[in-house]
Amino acid sequence: MFPPDDLIINIKNGIERSYLLSELRKKISELEDAKKELTDYAEKAKTKINSDSTLTDEEKKTAVEKVDTALNSGLSQIDSSTIDDFIDTIKQKVKGEIDKAVNPENKAKDIAKKSIDEELAKQSQIINEANDSTTEEKNTAVEKAKDVAKKVKANIDNAKTNNDVQKAKNDGVAAIHKVNPEIKIKLEAKKALDEAKKNQIKAIN
């Protein structure tokens, strides 16, 4: 004896509901896993940003804000997504945006140190073109300028804010410009020559 049709229908509907519920739970779990993956990725990125000594406080703040913006956008897209493949695309896109935020271009400290290198090159040229100095005196001055530039870069690296970086750079440029070669050897030689001429004239008279 076969079961009644309505019983078969009820069993079939129950199986379908069970399957659909299972699929729904699976989908929700996948969405939550994707969101957790992005959230964890963003948190690690923010930790890296905040511990990056090559960034100023302002740059860190901006970078963290970009990470949060990318994350929130990604989470919102995942919540409204219905296609599994699209979720993977969202994750890749968001991670790419977070990576860009972690490694910003045109960092204030890099720009400032580049300016110091340029000023050092200019001052070294000025030093080497000093006609009243000997080669030794020029070399000594160039090395001194290099030491000054090295200390300036250390000050830039230790700066916390954009203003601190700018001040360290400006002070450094001024310090580099003050480095000039001595003219002691040629000056003493010239002085000795002048004295010798005077003595010679006296002897003649």
Give short descriptive properties of this protein.
single chain, 205 residues, mainly alpha
What is the gist of this entry?
With 205 residues, the chain is mostly helical.
Spatial separation of the terminal alpha carbons: 153 Å
Oligomeric description of these chains: single chain
Largest sheet: none
Q: Give start-end ranges of low-pLDDT stretches.
A: none
What does this structure look like?
The chain has 205 residues and is an all-alpha fold. It is 83% helix and 0% strand. The chain contains seven helices and no strands. Helix 5 runs antiparallel to helix 6. The longest helix has 46 residues, at 5-50.
Task: Present the secondary structure layout.
Elements: H1 5-50, H2 57-79, H3 84-102, H4 108-128, H5 135-158, H6 162-177, H7 184-204
Helix pairs in contact: 1-2, 1-3, 2-3, 4-5, 4-6, 5-6
